[in-house]
Amino acid sequence: MTTTNRPVILAIDEDRSNQGKLAQAFNAQGLFYRFITDRRKVAGGIKQLSPDILMVFGELSSDFVIQVLDTVASDVASSALPIIVVAGDISDAQFVTGLRTNVVALFPTPFEPASVMAVKGLFDELHARPGVVKGQGDAKLLHRLIDHIRRTRRAGALIIDPRTPNEGKAVFSHGKLERASFLGAVGPDALKAMSAVPRCAWTFSEVAGQAGDGAGVVIEVGDVATGEHEIAEVIVGQEVVEDEPLAFEVTVPRPSAPTSPPPPPPNLTPEPMLAPGVQAIQLLLVDDDEAILRMFKTLFVKHGFQVSTATDGQLGAEVALTRAFDVVLADLNMPHLDGWGLLRLLREDFRTRELPVAFISAHDDYRESLKALNAGAQAYLSKGTRLDALVTQVKKLLEPRQAALNLLASAAPFSLQVAPVGPQWLLLHLAELHASGRLDARDGWANYALFFTDGVCTHCSAQAGKYTAEGEKAFNAFVASKNAEGTWTPGNGAAPQNLHLATPVLIERACATLNENERRMRESLMVSATQVDVNTDLYAVYRQVGPKQWLEAAKLICEDKLSPRDIIGRLEISPIDVEETMKDLIRRGVVTLKKAWTQKTAAPGTSLRSAAALCLSCERRWVVVQTRRR
Q1: Which of 112, 63, 117 is nearest to 86 (CA)?
Q2: Homologous superfamily of 1-129
Q3: Angle 132-82-565 (CA atoms, 0-180°, nearest 5)?
Q4: Of 550, 558, 556, residue with least CA distance to 577
Q5: What are the tens digits of pLDDT across the range 148-185?
Q6: Which of 133, 139, 216, 425 is the least buried, fewest Cβ under 10 Å from its Cβ?
Q7: Sequential DSSP letters for 562-605
Q8: What is the pTM of this model?
Q9: Count of CA atoms in the C-beta half-sphere (13 A) of 151
Q10: Would you tell me which CATH number, out of the four given (3.10.20.310, 3.40.50.2300, 3.50.50.60, 3.40.30.10), belongs to the domain 281-398?
């Protein structure tokens, strides 16, 4: 997405007759505008152009517009894009004012060049929208509203007659009903009864908003039965298909860069390499105190490290993706994004999930708390630690991997704990050593078998209960494994080839697939969670170091167990603020959202334990991405 106030616009219109004139009009106003006329190119156009806003020309009920909305909604990366629909029928406009994702406006046809600045004005106001739309109407209007939610593939919560004895609620995910309750009825029956109310007040709060990070509150705490029988389809990963290069039909230069100078790039200049044959440890230092950065960088370079630096947690997370670092050393207390937030970002991304992390801080009283929290960092160090001892402690983080390297170099069979080194790290080093043999592994969820020939993984299979996966699906499952135990047997094992790419490529594809699956699962949980679990130890630390503007709402969530709706009424704050608080609590691991599982939701013959084992956690590699009614 662009960061200037001049949006990049992608138009989708099967009739190109008016597009040339519109492109010129947008360009004359300093806006960047391109259009495509083939609905099959929508995903590729979004990927290549990274637009700030879409304009779709066609009726909301048309097959063309519905297919475009399906394409946008099916990709987590684009599902939060604001969309303008240009149509002859704009009667649904009353349902979109106040929303800032999906369809945010309807403009009447014909769209004239004079309306260009209206698009610019709409884009400028989106950030101030609450992510909520309200109204009153009869049963006919409510039918239209529900139809609009379904057709536009919206995610969010519809509430009628809020805060009254006749309150009804329906939660949708991409236009599909997740759950509903009204006057004792649940599921589709409740939604049908809601839509038959003669007259009511209604509110719709959307999910997804600023930077795709949420707008509106739709999380409801409590046990809500759906009354529906569903069979979970367990899918291990999906192939990531690259789009072909797309030639847009109008070439317009991007708007000029803003007058203010861009921020300086992160310090990525490596120090000179050590003597031949000696490999330097790649270290990323993250601290907002530049004097501390210079001192620690000098210290670690002296001890043979290659050092890169970043001055806050967000930048540190971005830099961590630019190079294969061996270890991260981060300050716990930083503005913008602290060390704890950085850790969560690294652990949530499969590309950096295995990266060893150590915290440093001037506050020794955090040490025992952080040890008890098991927050995912391998070490906590005081800034008062002697400098040479600090280097020793950082090197200790790498000892499990050095021990594994020694085992690999021995050319003998061995067993090891996979978690301390990481599945990806192990796979990459088997590839680098051109190893041939068989790796058998198991954790609490599945058994894995991987065969290597000259460093290339040629076969992978995984077995979890009665579920079997082969090829990339099984490979992805192993990459996401936790607490696995492995056994390596050198030799030329025989297994049918079901993998045909280099091991590093397979890992890259696995990370992309697993990241996408986890983002989809998190979004689904935000609209369907029926239980909020609070880690009391993490919450105690959050009260000390969490963002001050969210502490009051966090207290009501974690201590008083209030629903988001009640919090809004109690504090008189916007739904956006409440959901941003919830998002921050989730990112930091203080709060875990869960979807209640019952025996009837499991597939026939599947125990409740195994169903939960396969489907409950976003961090598992067996991810539920689809359901169907029995």
Answers
A1: 112
A2: Response regulator (3.40.50.2300)
A3: 20
A4: 550
A5: 999 998 888 899 998 888 899 998 877 888 788 999 89
A6: 139
A7: --HHHHHHHHT--HHHHHHHHHHHHHTTSEEEE----GGGSPTT
A8: 0.48
A9: 19
A10: 3.40.50.2300
